Q: What sequence folds into this?
């Protein structure tokens, strides 16, 4: 399976913030090869990897990544975006959700945010750290963020050393990658603050 340029950029963001990951509950959604989740686990986070419950081969790839990287404590669960399943209900509250290159089909955006919203209800301080490859200037998740009471901050790649080749991978190369940190717009007093 292919490691997407977005995954390398998100992995670099995790590496940049490695000092704050120890003991954090981290869930990767649409994980595939799971590079960001693997880096988080190597940096001491309690990681759960997930991919569609309808595609067992993708879940096998997550498990293989754990085996190859000697991470037997990392759990792998089937989570299909937009489905409130037993596995989603059973998840402990998360601190960080990782999502690399999951915003590629506009018809999936709302399902992804539904799943994220559910996790925000469990822990209103959870942050979604997401990278995506810009494939069309017309696609934007920001109107949906407003609808789901979420806010986002764009993180310049340069601020975490991802604007040039990362770890000799020749990535992100000439792909345009964006990095977003998405969180609940409401604070603990129920006051909404939007930041776009
Ligand atoms: C473009 S790949 C990105 C994989 C990985 N995050 C990366 O960056 O290398 C999209 C991933 O989303 C998963 N996916 C697609 N539709 C999904 C859905 N409805 N629910 C959960 N996962 C889904 C795919 O199985 C695949 O692993």
A:
């Amino acid at each position: 399976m292919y490691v997407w340029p977005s995954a390398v950029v998100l992995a670099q963001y995790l590496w940049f913030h490695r000092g704050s990951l120890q003991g954090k509950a981290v869930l990767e959604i649409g994980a595939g090869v799971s590079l960001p989740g693997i880096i988080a686990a190597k940096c001491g986070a309690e990681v759960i990897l997930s991919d569609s419950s309808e595609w067992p081969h993708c879940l096998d790839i997550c498990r293989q990544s754990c085996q190859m990287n000697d991470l037997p404590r990392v759990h792998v669960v089937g989570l299909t975006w937009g489905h409130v399943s037993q596995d989603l209900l059973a998840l402990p509250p998360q601190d960080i959700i990782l999502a690399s290159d999951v915003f590629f089909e506009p018809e999936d955006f709302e399902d992804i945010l539904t799943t994220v919203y559910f996790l925000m209800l469990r822990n209103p301080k959870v942050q979604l750290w997401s990278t995506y490859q810009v494939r069309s200037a017309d696609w934007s998740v920001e109107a949906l963020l407003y609808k789901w009471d979420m806010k986002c901050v764009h993180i310049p790649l340069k601020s975490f050393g991802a604007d040039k080749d990362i770890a000799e991978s020749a990535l992100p190369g000439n792909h345009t990658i964006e990095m977003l940190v998405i969180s609940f717009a409401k604070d603990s007093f129920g006051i909404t603050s939007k930041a776009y």
Q: What stands out?
A: Residues 5-184 form a domain with the Rossmann fold fold (CATH 3.40.50.150). The mean pLDDT is 91. Helices lie at 5-16, 35-42, 56-68, 86-89, 106-122, 142-147. The two ends are 34 Å apart (CA to CA).
